[in-house]
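Hi all, posting the design record for the shared folder.

TITLE: backbone redesign
STEP: 1 of 1
STRUCTURE INPUT:
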């Protein structure tokens, strides 16, 4: 058995689920708290599986997807619903997951020149209808799982391109950074994302989910909404899970969003979803300084920059890596080089 270095992250952070549980009636609270407990156990269980399963045969087709039906249970992967090139099924969530993973795969393939999460065309398996009214989605290190939502606060996740692209991007990071970017294994505890490296891992997923959304809609940086998870809440519950434009702005997100965008406020004990606001906002500032379409200049810069990172890299390492790549790709003193520097300076990672 080899330890997986994969993501141990759910789309909806524990703090947000707990916040909603606190506001629920007894039944709703019990459901969400049971899911928090289950999610913690799942991280350990799935991440302990053999690494072999994470490296299926290289693809022979342009895209390789499979969507399974977990049928409300937690056994993975469940029953095969839709294989690559199959016609749509009658299951709307299966089709939504299939389509959104296709968009993420196509973005990495055609825009980034990277064939699937591992760069070798690995098939992406997804199980929809995971668990009982499960209000989350996750990349397990081997596949994606998508819940139906609890019905009260969350509508489900499969239809959300931002959420699906975020989780898929964790699969990319897993293969990009040996040992897992910020993945920590406390003794006797499930693995978790910690420190600056863990926050960079979270941020990579938000940044690429944002670019994928913008690419899919053909949006410029001015047209983009710069949020993740704006489409998963039931009415009145929240506006988005995170904002890259204004991390921690509760008017733009949800009632207890505590994301930070200033490195001077960072503490090593910060949750990765909190401190990911720092690199998220650096990317946003760089993209706005450049204008146009975010992925055209900054996509390769961020991917190649993060490709240089190691398991315990810091924000400053990421800043230097992306600044260096911008200079290499576009020239020293180029607009791109200056924009990336300006991004990291805006969040006080660079001075
Ligand atoms: Zn994540």
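Okay, here is what came back for every position:
SEQUENCE:
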């Amino acid at each position: 058995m080899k330890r997986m270095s994969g993501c141990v992250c759910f789309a909806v952070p524990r703090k947000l689920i707990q916040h909603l549980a606190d506001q629920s009636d007894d039944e709703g609270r019990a459901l969400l708290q049971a899911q928090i407990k289950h999610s913690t156990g799942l991280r350990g269980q799935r991440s302990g599986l053999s690494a072999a399963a994470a490296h299926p045969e290289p693809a022979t087709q342009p895209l390789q997807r499979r969507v399974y039906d977990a049928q409300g249970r937690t056994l993975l992967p469940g029953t095969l619903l839709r294989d690559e090139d199959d016609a749509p099924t009658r299951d709307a969530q299966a089709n939504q997951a299939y389509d959104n993973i296709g968009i993420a795969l196509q973005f990495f393939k055609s825009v980034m020149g990277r064939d699937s999460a591992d760069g070798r065309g690995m098939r992406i398996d997804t199980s929809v209808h995971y668990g009982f009214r499960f209000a989350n989605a996750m990349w397990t290190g081997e596949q994606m799982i998508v819940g139906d939502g609890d019905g009260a606060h969350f509508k489900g996740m499969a239809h959300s391109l931002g959420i699906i692209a975020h989780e898929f991007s964790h699969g990319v990071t897993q293969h990009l950074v040996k040992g897992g970017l910020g993945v920590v294994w406390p003794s006797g505890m499930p693995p978790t994302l910690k420190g600056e490296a863990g926050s960079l891992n979270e941020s990579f997923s938000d940044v690429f989910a944002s670019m994928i959304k913008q690419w899919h809609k053909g949006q410029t940086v001015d047209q983009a909404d710069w949020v993740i998870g704006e489409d998963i809440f039931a009415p009145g519950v929240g506006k988005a899970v995170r904002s890259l434009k204004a991390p921690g702005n509760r008017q733009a997100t949800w009632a207890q969003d505590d994301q930070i965008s200033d490195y001077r406020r960072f503490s090593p004990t910060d949750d990765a979803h909190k401190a990911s606001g720092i690199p998220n906002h650096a990317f946003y500032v760089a993209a706005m300084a450049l204008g146009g379409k975010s992925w055209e200049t900054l996509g390769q810069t961020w991917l190649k920059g993060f490709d240089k990172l190691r398991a315990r890299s810091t924000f400053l390492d990421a800043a230097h890596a992306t600044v260096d790549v911008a200079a290499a790709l576009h020239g020293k003193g180029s607009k791109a080089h200056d924009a990336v520097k300006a991004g990291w300076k805006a969040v006080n990672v660079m001075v």
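COMMENT: The longest strand covers residues 65-69.
Let me know if anyone wants the other runs.
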